[in-house]
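Work Package 3 (structural annotation) set out to generate three-dimensional models for the target panel prioritized at the project kickoff. During this period the team completed the workflow that converts sequence records into discrete structure tokens, so that structures can be stored uniformly alongside our sequence database. As a representative example, we reproduce one entry of 208 residues exactly as it appears in the project archive.
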Amino acid sequence: MSSQRPYFIGVAGGTCSGKTTVSERLADLMGEDHLALVKLDSYYWARDDQPFEERVKVNYDHPDSFDWPLLRSHLDTLRSGASVPIPVYDYANHTRSSDVRIVRSAKIVVVEGILVLYEPTIRDICDLKIFIDTDSDLRFIRRLTRDVTERGRTTESIIAQYLETVRPSHQQFIEPSKRNADVVFPEGGMNVPAIDILLARVRELVNR
């Protein structure tokens, strides 16, 4: 990698808006030699000291659920050109696993997550800030399908969590962060023209 510092792109949006689809598509197309992907979900606090019954009740869409200092420290390390050991989160047990994922620095660093544009210490490192804007009914259907099939949760628990914490937190924290975006993408991963424009910009930066 060159001595030039990485270009940071922040990708935010509500739960299941398509932000992960956009970010992972960029990562797949560019390859890890050119693009490092950092997911905010990896930085949920470890809750090994709490009983499982208490972990289930936590509001995981609230800013206090994330270890912002560790994330910022890792982004600063990537900015310096070094690699970082990113935690691997265990969604089924609501805590960090014992594994880590080594991410190498690259010309482009994408930081993806629901509150990336809300938290000032993360937002201010981003050169380009993107908000993925998708209708709430579509996001809920996607979340319901994902949590049942991938995270082993019941329909009843997903609905209860959505009404009690996910929806209120979206309205209080995530939706207002849209005003911090440089670009708003409607319909997330389904917006092919928007992804093509972003990909063209990333390729331009990589080829400098």
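The helical segments are 19-30, 52-56, 68-79, 120-123, 136-149, 155-174, 192-206.
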